[in-house]
Amino acid sequence: MDKTVIKQRVKAYLDLVRPFTLLAPIIVSICIMIASYVYADYEASIFNYVWTMIIPASLSFAFLNGASNALNQVTDLEADKISKAYRPIPSGAVSTNEALSISLLMYMISFTLSILINIWFVLFIFLIALFTITYSLPPRLKDKLIFNQLWVGIPRGLLAIMASWSVFGNSLQPLPLAIALIAMSFLIGGSITKDIIDAEADKKTGTNTLVNTFGVKKAAIMALPFMFFPFVFIPILINSGILNIQFFILTFLCIPAFFIFYLMIRDTDKHHKLENTSSWALMYITYFVFAFGFSILTITG
After folding, report:
1. Range 187-208 average pLDDT
2. pLDDT tens across 56-97, in order?
3. Residue 234: CB partners within 8 Å, gap ≥ 6?
4. How many Cβ atoms sit within 10 Å of the Cβ of residue 47?
5. Dist. CA 271–CA 268, nearest whole Å
6. How far apart are CA 229 and CA 227, in angstroms?
7. Distance between CA atoms of residues 28 and 204, nearest Å
8. Which of 55, 44, 185 is nearest to 113 (CA)?
9. What is the pLDDT of residues 127-156, one digit of tens each?
10. What is the pTM of this model?
11. Domains of the chain
């Protein structure tokens, strides 16, 4: 096979799994895993677990996210023909059967890697996979108003944080639960940033989102409390003893929540170079900072 053809195929497959979005589960999971390791007060060096626990677990998340992305592009074909015709399936670079095969393979790799960790991690990966599958396949909860927000926030926020913590610790402890609930709330609100560009295509293909139902401004107003208040409530969690005082600095992440809100109502017609709006990019960055900050504060606290 010609080298040019090979490069084109590789690029098409990468576009299918959207590698930039795989950074989120890798970065967030590693941060939370390190925090759980320190919190659990292991005697052995963390470097003893890099290849046996941390890398397999983070790759399990990455493959799971890639599988979800590929499956979602298969079921979003009609909408993508309208708003993202350059994507590999509507452009003809990848067939639907190829995409489904890649998705299935990545789901299988994710599950296989999860088995190397522990039973709790396997359970969480299974639950996250269930959410991603029902998000895209019938009854296709992506099409259902409100449910489409929950089906992003619950697996990527609550379950992902708990799964990451379970690698070394007990994810049912108050600390990881509090952090997971904050992440869930933030993503329930922040995930509507991805719907701005697709508003018209979603409406034509029967997907009801806050954006195409109420308009961008009203949707942004509805989303703001979910992004803002979880961080504002951190002092209350500190006062109740669930979080230690050093986590107070995370309260200031309520500030980028307002910037996300501002960009949502201002940047509706501009495509971000990473295939979405600037509000979407800032939402991801804020989530990275939250996970990284939590990890650093747990390690140094």
Report:
1. 93
2. 999 999 999 999 999 999 999 999 999 899 999 999 999 999
3. 182, 243, 247, 248, 250, 251
4. 8
5. 8
6. 6
7. 34
8. 55
9. 999 999 999 998 899 999 999 999 999 999
10. 0.94
11. 3-300 (1.10.357.140)
